[in-house]
Catechol-O-methyltransferase domain containing 1
Amino acid sequence: MRCSQKTGHRPFSTDTPSDTRFTREKTQHLSTSRSRAARGMNVIQKPRPGREEAGPGRLAPRGGQLRPTSLRRGRTAQLAATSPRPEMPLFSVPKEVAVGTAMLGVAFATGLLAGKRYPSLLFGTSKPHKSIIGKSSPLWQYILDHSLREHPILKKLRLLTAEYPWGKMMVSCDQAQLMANLIKLIKAKKVIEVGVLTGYNALSMALALPDNGRVIACDINEDYAKIGKPLWKEAGVDHKIDLRIKPATQTLDELLAGGEAETFDFAFIDADKESYNEYYEKCLRLIKKGGIIAIDNVLRCGMVLKPRKDDLATQSIHHLNEKLVRDARVNISMIPMGDGVTLVFKL
Ligand SMILES: C[S@@+](CC[C@H](N)C(=O)[O-])C[C@H]1O[C@@H](n2cnc3c(N)ncnc32)[C@H](O)[C@@H]1O
């Protein structure tokens, strides 16, 4: 599961940003996309209007109405004391106990299944949102109303991306704005994005860069970027975005081999989670001292608290988090924004 929001769940009108990503869905989407791509099929599909995705947001509320155990015990004891013993009992235990036990069994099995399918329910984030503050929370709307200054074409791209079922992979708009502000603060000229999608954040960074600035935008799937490209152009910054369609490790290696180590100011890592450590190490070599790397999804909707053995994406992020807190090459701040973003400052 990705901490995600139902597509079409728009409590704040069409301006509500798409929920950001939760990578199990991403991974599922990617693997589906890859197999579809391998079969020569178009992997970009528009949502059917009005049709909601099956997803965690649709999980019925838990609550098999079991009475508290103490009450059940009291009732059982009362029954035992007052009921005459039947001549030929159908059950070797009182019926209430048998029914109660069966209900407990059902509740336990349901809990296990729900926990497997929707781990966030077990890990304390009862709302299946990617964001720390749920996107249906009035506080989220308040944050946007009182901080978001979004370029009109950036907003257009966000709303366009949000129309697609995979649009929830898009970075959170408040987080994109923070990164753009950092880019301006450090007067960045060269930046990298690992994982572009339609380029919401690539566009946000391009808008923050000077006219001779450059975004090296790495993705394996050009179909997403094709949706965003006309808007990069409309915003007049397409000349700053250098899209490289191939595995990001390959692009980063090419930059290193081309003598561009220590020449970048900023990097944003937001692609396949299993490769995050590799992306981090390569980006660390590519950015200058004083440069910044932003690493997305570091909280994985709370699942980093107890990564499942079979959830390699969360395991990978958790290991990187453990490494970063001790990494003497950098200073860091882990920020509970979006799905958690760690800012890494190269020393
Ligand atoms: C979460 S989305 C990126 C969102 C984007 N940063 C934004 O501004 O909204 C992840 C992207 O990573 C890309 N991706 C996945 N594996 C990749 C790889 N090995 N190399 C490059 N890109 C990859 C996917 O195609 C997808 O577009």
